[in-house]
Amino acid sequence: MGGDTVPGMSPDLDALIAEATVDCYGDDEQLTGLFTMIDENVAVPYDTTILGVLVTVRRLELTVDGRIVARCVRDGVDQRISLLDLPLPDPAPDGGEWIKAYRRWRER
Is there a contact between 90 and 5 (Cβ–Cβ < 8 Å)? Predict the structure, then answer.
């Protein structure tokens, strides 16, 4: 499944969550499953805007405290920003549906 979505159609986020967490027990394993799919499917680097400032997302990371963060760079400054707080650009990068699925999973 991964990044294979039909242009113009929304992916079924619940189906993506189910795919990423199929053999997972508990939230920690589910988070790891979702991060794995994000890491394998989201095309980085990509640019987005936060607080009116254009930044480049260089990579995505899973932190020891159980968050997925984007490592953002601008003018030589490197900062980690929660994937929950970072707006997706329009159009979203390839694999962006996995970020949306992670956000839905976190809302439950």
Answer: no
Q: Which two tokens stand for residue 25?
A: 């027990």
Alpha helices in the chain (DSSP H): 13-21, 26-41, 96-107
pLDDT tens per residue, range 62-79: 999 999 999 999 999 999
Query: Do 83 and 69 meet the contact criterion of CB atoms below 8 Å apart?
Result: yes
CA-derived radius of gyration, the chain: 14
Does residue 98 contact residue 37 with C-beta atoms inside 8 Å?
yes
pLDDT digits (tens, 9 = 90+) for 11-28: 699 999 999 999 999 999
Beta bridge partners of 72: 57, 79
Q: Which H or E run contains 53?
A: strand 53-62
Estimate the crossing angle of helix 13-21 against helix 26-41, to 10 degrees: 110
